[in-house]
Amino acid sequence: MIFTYNKEHVGDVLMVIVKDSKGAKLDYERKGNVSRVFLEKNGETVAWNIFEVSSLIAIDGVGQVTLSDEDVAKLNAELTKEGFSEQLENDPSPKFVVGQIKETVAHPDSDHLNICQVQISDDKTVQIVAGAPNAAVGLKTIVALPGAMMPNGSLIFPGALRGEKSFGMMCSPRELALPNAPQKRGIIELDDTAVVGEAFNPAKHWKG
After folding, report:
1. Taking every annotated instance into account, which residue ranges of this chain make up the domain TRNA-binding (predicted)?
2. CB atoms within 10 A of CB 159
3. Alpha-carbon Rg of the chain, whole angstroms?
4. Full-prediction pTM beyond 0.85?
5. What is the pLDDT, as a whole number, of residue 207?
6. In 86-202, beta strands by DSSP E
7. What is the pLDDT confidence band of residue 36, given thresholds at 50, 70 and 90?
8. What residues contact residue 127 under an 8 Å CB cut-off, 6+ apart?
């Protein structure tokens, strides 16, 4: 679940993205200051728009924002008040973390993609399909996990590349909009002191 807010360009509206619509036809229903966006074919919710949200909670930041459990409880109370039965689920865990490549194998249906097993915490490894030329076993890099919004506004969801499942994206400095990022392909290379699982901090992890 992705919370996004940009008062200057969108207005006082919190956009809550629940799942990837994958370009399917959408419809919506609005009750009061709450609008539910759903798939036309089956009614499944893909997003919420909560208008005049500053009357409910204080939001700090632009783009993807992190809300407290108390904030989300207030939003859920608003949904219930307007007659919606669904509830928002909060996940305040970091969506950009240090990861380390533990294994790579060539994609069976591509001459440039690799299927990588990437450790993202002490007890979790995820599969990520990547085309970065510098992806190699042992490399530490920054991983955008499902639920992340990239600086250009694109969203990270679980997916598949040429039939192989992928649960995130290893990021280049340019994709992270880092200052003086090289304008070439390749994921960010961290030094060995970076700790797997820690949240991405540009001041700490980038010396461009």
Report:
1. 90-201
2. 15
3. 19
4. no
5. 81
6. 96-106, 114-121, 124-130, 140-144, 159-161, 164-166, 169-170
7. very high
8. 115, 116, 117, 118, 164, 165, 166, 167
Residue 185, pLDDT above cutoff 90: no
pLDDT digit string (tens) for 39-69? 999 999 999 999 999 999 999 888 899 999 9
Please report the DSSP string for 41-86 in residue order: TT--EEEEEEETGGGT----SSEE----HHHHHHHHHHHHHTT---
Q: Which residues contact 12 (CB under 8 A, 6 or more apart)?
A: 51, 52, 53, 54
- Helix then strand count (H, E) for the chain reads 3, 13
Q: Determine the Cα–Cα distance for residues 150 and 199; give it in Å rounded to an integer.
A: 15
Instruction: Tell me if 148 sits within 8 A of 13, measured CB to CB.
Output: no
**Residue 152: per-residue pLDDT:** 87
Structure tokens at 192: 């060995």
Q: What is the C-alpha to C-alpha distance for residues 208 and 182, in angstroms, rounded to an integer?
A: 9
Residues 82-111 have pLDDT tens digits of 999 999 999 888 999 999 999 999 998 888
User: What is d(CA 109, CA 153) in angstroms, rounded to the nearest whole number?
Assistant: 29
